[in-house]
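2 proteins. here.
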Amino acid sequence: MTTIARDRELPAPAISPENQPFFEGTAQGVLLLKFCDGCGRHHYYPRTICPHCFSDRTRWIEAKGSGSIYTFSVLRLGTPTPFALAYVKLSEGPTMMTNIVDCDLDALEIGMAVRLVCKPATDGTMIPMFTPGAIA
């Protein structure tokens, strides 16, 4: 069986001064993460204070835009469906809740390599999502 993900209307995200650089990155097709100079770890969701060590010595870095599916669920009820909701383990370490798009949803597997794609929300803000495949 083949189930292709449908495009669906994405609500506009709440943009704040704290996360604005993140969405400026997605507008360019780039995933930005916060990196803590205090403990040397990346974190997602973007915030000024490191959730690992509570340091305020954080800065933006450009992520590779790759990872692997940690877990996922294909939603088939309601509208519009179907679509895949997933946790993606980013190459830099953090786990990100996202959608898996532009693929056969029945072929998804835990551990599958994925790469970044950005899709527009209703206001045009680009939202980070992933599709199967390694970065070329």
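next one coming up
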Amino acid sequence: MLPLLFVLLGACAPSAASETSFSVTDDLFAYPQYQIEHSDDYILFEDALDLLDSIKVASLAHSGSDVRVVREDEAFDDDVAEYAMLTLHNSPYLCSIPRVSRAVANETQPTASEEDKQKELARAADKGRELLSGMQSNQCLFYSTGWWTYSFCYNQEVRQFHALSMGQMGGRTWPPQQDPTTPAFVLGKVDAETKDPATPKQDSQTAVSTELQTKAETSYLVQKLAGGTNCDLTGKDRKVEIEFHCNPQLTDRIGWIKEVSTCSYLMVVYTPRLCSDVAFMPPKDSNAYPIRCSRILHESEVSEWEAEREAEEAAATQLVQQDAETPLFLGNVHVGGMKYFKDGKKLEPGRIVLTPDERAETIMMQKDGKVSSISNAELKKLELEPGDIEKFRKQLEKLAGAKDWKIERTDDINGQVQLRGVVSEDEKKSSREEDTDDPATDIGSDGELEGSEEVFKEDL
């Protein structure tokens, strides 16, 4: 059985086999599994023949490949059970098949009792709810596809709406704002009917029921929200099922959402929070046993073969050096510059900044030639230095010219303070006497400068 398995592996493209994940190239009846690895070294033809001819040789052929299998011999490597010669792309290779203990290979993992399984499921579900509770203090998630935009606020609701265009939002695209002329729909919300009885009662809060489900050896949490906007096609309220999957490479985000049936939806949320519990980690593939193959060369071919390898290594080294000399920038961030994160520092999940209402505080503005500003004491409370504000004001005045402007304080996704300058597109009136009846605009007013352009100062 082993030689036949090896022939099949040699005839097909090399691929990793796994005991836990399915692949169409796997031999489902073969155990143990093997994976062919091509070595960077070579073996002389005479040495290969010594290994093959010193013991009994069996020849097999499959799909035009010539394979010669050598049975186990105590004189050779104890970790190698068999040797074989494989002809691939008209080039001969000597392959070593590792020794596999049949007793170990046929052993089965001890199975846990049903009671232990239920206890572990209950523990994982409780831990998962605890890990997801951190999303409640974060801001809402958004997902746009085609005409519709979806918002998900943890432990609140899922909404579907049409977002305003970039032009309608003054050049901004995030966070999406609902178009007031288009109806919006609630796909599901948290209410008393969906309350989890196992969750302790909280002040003015109801926690949605969260269940643990397992599919294809992957565990995830599921929330089912009902009570959405009434569906005119079914006469029933809209409902949505939300799946929370572990993904250590991402911050909290909506992976996708689809309407599985009329007014019934399925949303998948990827979050690194669940990855803190091993129960929600994706299953790891079992390592396949490596079959290592080395190129068989005659002595006259060695020089040419080594020259080709040296040329390939030199080309690869030159390419790496070129990439290293050319820094990669995304926006104003130097990728690999290690400005924000050094070796050994853990990258924490970022905050979700896609909120329905962006928080920005005006700290200084010029309206109709009059400048208003908050006090230095208030600037200190906002973690701002008056000197920085004054420098930014002078830069903004040069840019604005005779136009009105204002300076706002905002926070970026990393929680760092930014100064944003907004310049009105309307030209300043030539005569200030025309505006004598208009009072000066205070900092605390809601007056917005119509038609504006924005400039940012680097993070403070």
